[in-house]
């Protein structure tokens, strides 16, 4: 899915992401890594739009250093509706079991 398809209604703002590596959950030997293409992620009110590169990642929202929301992204899922009870600034992180994480900041 390309960047334009990540947000099918054309609304919302892109969420700038950076890549980081976290300790892997499994103990398999590390694989060689190719340069990563950043996924397209947009926010429109309480809806996060993601492209298909984030399938099987977990979306995490952090506030004050604590996880306040988690959602596992399924294959084919292109939008996630966040609870409307959330408000303020959050670190948003998309992480997988291989130790890859994309990190940004959102305000709700």
Mean pLDDT: 83
Strand order of the largest sheet: 2-9-8-5-6
Summing up helix and strand content along with how strands pair, one would put the structural category as: mainly beta
- Overall shape: it is globular
Number of strands: 9
Low-confidence residue ranges = none
Helix content: under 10%
Query: What's the end-to-end separation, in Å?
Result: 26 Å
- The Rg value, from CA coordinates, equals 14 Å
Strand content: 35-45%
> Major beta sheet, specifics?
5 strands, antiparallel
The number of distinct helices, counting runs of at least 4 residues, comes to 1
Order of helices and strands: HEEEEEEEEE
Q: What does this entry look like structurally?
A:
The chain has 108 residues and is mainly β. The chain is built from 1 helix and 9 strands; from the N terminus they run αβββββββββ. The strands form 2 sheets. It has a 5-stranded antiparallel sheet with strand order 2-9-8-5-6, with no helix packed on it. It has a 4-stranded antiparallel sheet with strand order 1-3-4-7, with no helix packed on it. The model has no long low-confidence stretch (mean pLDDT 83).
Keywords:
single chain, 108 residues, mainly beta, 5-stranded antiparallel sheet
Short summary of the structure?
The chain is mainly beta. It has one helix at 3-6, and strands at 13-14, 18-21, 41-44, 47-50, 58-63, 66-72, 79-81, 89-95, 100-107. The strands form 2 sheets. The protein has a 5-stranded antiparallel sheet, with no helix packed on it. The protein has a 4-stranded antiparallel sheet with strand order 1-3-4-7, with no helix packed on it.
């Amino acid at each position: 899915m390309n960047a334009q398809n990540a947000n099918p209604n054309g609304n919302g703002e892109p969420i700038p992401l950076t890549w980081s590596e976290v300790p892997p959950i499994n103990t398999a030997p590390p694989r060689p890594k190719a340069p990563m293409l950043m996924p397209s992620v947009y926010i429109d009110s309480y809806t996060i739009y993601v492209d298909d590169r984030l399938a099987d990642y977990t979306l995490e929202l952090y506030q004050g250093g604590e996880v306040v929301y988690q959602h596992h992204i399924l294959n084919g899922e292109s939008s996630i509706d966040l609870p409307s009870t959330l408000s303020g600034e959050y670190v948003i992180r998309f992480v997988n079991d291989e130790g890859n994480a994309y990190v940004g900041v959102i305000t709700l």
